[in-house]
Design goal:
By secondary structure, the chain is mainly β. 6% of the residues lie in helices and 54% in strands. The protein starts with a helix and ends with a strand.
């Protein structure tokens, strides 16, 4: 808790000193709940965990008018674990976001620092996990990063203005390794169009040697997969019909020579050495607002995999079903319940990927099935 008090003091000083020149805002979310996992390494698990639908955070953001339609902008955002008081994102002080930049109403915004990639910005909001569901509703191992498993360091990012519902953006994260310009380098592109009840988006991301070192665009203790290369592309659509919102998202993630995942550790096949791992995710989601305070939502994801080794090829499959009920006690506070089930099918790979694992579970299941329940309370300020 001493660390959080220190962070609050730092943010308070920043906001206080900036008030005379900059419009600064302190904000945050505290999301805490009780989890039940039916099979975690062969046993049941009961936990109190922080930040599943919304990552618990404390931040300050600001804007200074420089004249002529130009503004300076900044944002510093700390992620923390409300159950322990410890810092998240690899113990980083501002692990969620840390950037400064310039913004123009007609030309868009250019920022530098630790930031979200274009998949998170454009495709993520159309998924269940990137919108209303959070962590438990991620695609297997959050392979496409729509749930923000990692942020991009050393990043220069451009976000366009809104042109009658059309907007786009790009990001480049530097590897910062002398003599190896492609080591731990990341770049991404995204586009979206929002008009009335329709929202359509597409994004692409390429990571070269993600997690190869601690100073590159995706640090070793931040990467969701350690691999030679990670490429993700996807598109999605949401449609609002009365009180209901329906969505479909497709994403493809291709790993070259993957070694491990932050979620399940080393990926060692029984036959040969792993050369390629591909995920094709097909997600259907829906949400219905019964009253201004109460909603029900559901998600189903089918994932086709390709697991190629030096001696054989396999085609694993994942089925995921998620349900969520949410009730607002006020404009800032809500209670929610979540239930998620995963089933692994298809040809066994002879690796840890044959066991079910819901991102956020206590541990990998000892079987091809796993289920989780969560009851939580969330407050925004």
């Amino acid at each position: 808790m001493k660390k959080l008090v220190l962070i609050a003091g730092v943010l308070g000083c920043i906001a206080g000193s900036a008030q005379a020149q900059t419009n600064a805002t302190i904000y945050g979310i505290v999301d805490l709940g009780l989890n039940f996992t039916n099979n975690a390494g062969g046993s049941r698990a009961y936990q109190m965990e922080s930040g599943y639908p919304s990552g618990s955070r404390l931040g300050v953001k600001g804007k200074e008018d420089l004249g002529g339609g130009l503004s300076a902008v900044f944002q510093l955002e700390n992620g923390f674990n409300a159950d322990t008081g410890g810092m998240g994102q690899g113990q980083r002080l501002f692990g969620r976001q840390a950037f400064v930049g310039l913004s123009n109403k007609q030309l868009g915004t250019l920022t530098m620092g630790r930031q979200y990639d274009s998949v998170v910005d454009y495709l993520g909001p159309l998924t269940a996990n990137g919108n209303w569901g959070g962590y438990l509703f991620s695609h297997p191992f959050d392979n496409d990063n729509t749930d923000n498993s990692f942020r991009v360091n050393n990043a220069v990012k451009y976000t366009s203005a809104d042109y009658n519902g059309f907007s786009f953006g790009s990001l480049a994260g530097f590897g910062e390794t002398a003599g190896a310009q492609r080591t731990n380098l990341t770049y991404s592109l995204g586009v979206q169009y929002v008009n009335g009840p329709w929202a359509v988006a597409a994004a692409y991301m390429n990571n070269r040697l993600p997690g190869a070192n601690a100073i590159g665009s995706i640090a070793t203790n931040d990467a969701n997969f350690i691999a030679e290369q990670q490429r993700t592309a996807g598109a999605g659509i949401n449609y609002i019909m009365g009180n209901a919102t329906y969505g479909f998202v497709y994403s493809n993630t291709n790993f070259t020579n993957p070694l491990s995942s932050v979620y399940v550790g080393e990926i060692t096949p029984a036959l040969g050495s792993l050369s390629k791992l591909v995920f094709n995710n097909y997600e259907f989601n829906a949400k219905y607002q019964f009253t201004p305070a109460f909603s029900l939502a559901a998600m189903y994801t089918f994932t086709q995999g390709k697991f190629n080794t030096s001696e054989a090829n396999f085609k694993p499959k994942w089925h995921m079903l998620g349900l969520m009920a949410d009730y607002d006690l006020s404009k800032r506070t809500d209670i929610y319940a979540q239930a998620v089930y995963q089933q692994v099918a298809g040809s066994p790979t002879g690796s840890v990927l044959d066991s079910a694992y819901i991102p956020g579970a206590s541990d990998v299941s000892s079987a091809a099935r796993q289920g989780m329940l969560r009851l939580g309370l969330r407050h925004k300020f």
